Amino acid sequence: MDWWQAIILALLQGLTEFLPISSSAHLVIPSLMLGWKDQGLAFDVAVHVGTLSAVVIYFRRDLIALLLALVSGTRERRVNDGCRQVMFLVVATLPVVITGFLLNDVIEGHLRTLPVIAATTLVFGLVLGLADRSARDGIQRDLTLPIALAVGIAQAIAPVPGVSRSGVTITAGLLLGLGHQRAARFSFLLSIPVIAGAGLLKGRDLLLLETPVPWLQLLLAALLAGTTAYACIAAFLRLIDRIGLMPFVYYRVALALVLAALWLA
User: Fold this and answer.
1) Which helix (H) or strand (E) holds 100?
2) Is a pLDDT exceeding 70 seen at residue 138?
3) Which of 83, 120, 132, 149 has the most CB atoms lying inside 10 A of its own CB?
4) Cα–Cα nearest to 218, from 41, 37, 15, 23
5) How far apart are CA 179 and CA 158, in angstroms?
6) Cβ(229)–Cβ(14) under 8 Å?
7) How far apart are alpha carbons 116 and 121 in whole angstroms?
């Protein structure tokens, strides 16, 4: 991989990891239009480290508060609010872990195609639009265990290319009445165990490789992906109440049309 390819792909990963527009849909375009080969396992691990660092740093106060509450609840042998929040995250993570292990070979072998990515980008973009409209008129609810489980079940289909992990979890949260801010924040916190788990699995596979690793290039990719992802999280949470999600819906529809045109061509 040359330096420009690494820079562009790292920026794309950082820009699209947490926005509801599907990172897989964007990463397939350069490979098709420019003839780029797969970026490789080491690069995947690097950008995962970058985006994971971004969300952990952004939500560091929330994570420290959850950790302290969990320790306090364990010592006092009672379930406090922090313990419940951790339980919600664990419960919501389990479905995607199960589907990831059971369906990974099917997804990697049969679903990473332009027609699938174009279709999922369009369909789940339209559902996101319906969720956005319903959230503007509905009553906001607090996060509960059934809602967390439902969001987790929605996240279970996120490994399908074009769905968008953040998009489908925010959609589920809105449809269940969480409101824009609660749905987005829970989606971002929920990304931490998912990205960490994927990074650990890829990192384990990376240790088994005997090919040389371009450390400087990977460090740059991690920094670019992380910095861009942090900026996207901050901007998204500041703007979501003001602009809603319809700009992302329109973008997904346009992107789906571009992907369909590439496929037909």
Assistant:
1) helix 81-106
2) no
3) 120
4) 41
5) 21
6) yes
7) 8
Relative orientation angle of helices 246-264 and 114-137, to the nearest 10 degrees? 160
Within 13 Å of residue 86, how many CA atoms lie on the same side as its CB?
A: 17
> What is the pTM for the complete model shown?
0.92
DSSP secondary structure letters along 193-219: HHHHHHHHHHHHHHHT--S---HHHHH
Go through the chain and tell me how many residues it has.
265
Q: Could you tell me the two tokens for 165?
A: 């992990």
Residue 79 falls in which region: left (phi positive, over 0), alpha (psi -120 to 50) or beta: beta
* Paired tokens of 176: 């269940």
Could you tell me if 62 and 190 are in contact, meaning their C-beta atoms sit under 8 angstroms apart? no
pLDDT band of residue 77 (cuts 50, 70, 90) is confident
Q: Which long-range contacts (CB under 8 A, 24 or more apart) does 179-182 make?
A: 179/135, 179/140, 179/141, 180/135, 180/240, 180/241, 180/244, 180/245, 181/237, 181/240, 181/241, 182/140, 182/142, 182/143
Q: Which of 27-36, 144-153, 242-251 has the weakest average pLDDT? A: 27-36
Cα–Cα distances (Å) from 257 to 16, 73, 123, 168, in that order, read 18, 51, 12, 20
Which residue reads 């985006």 in tokens? 51
The vertex-198 CA angle with 197 and 201, nearest 5°, equals 85
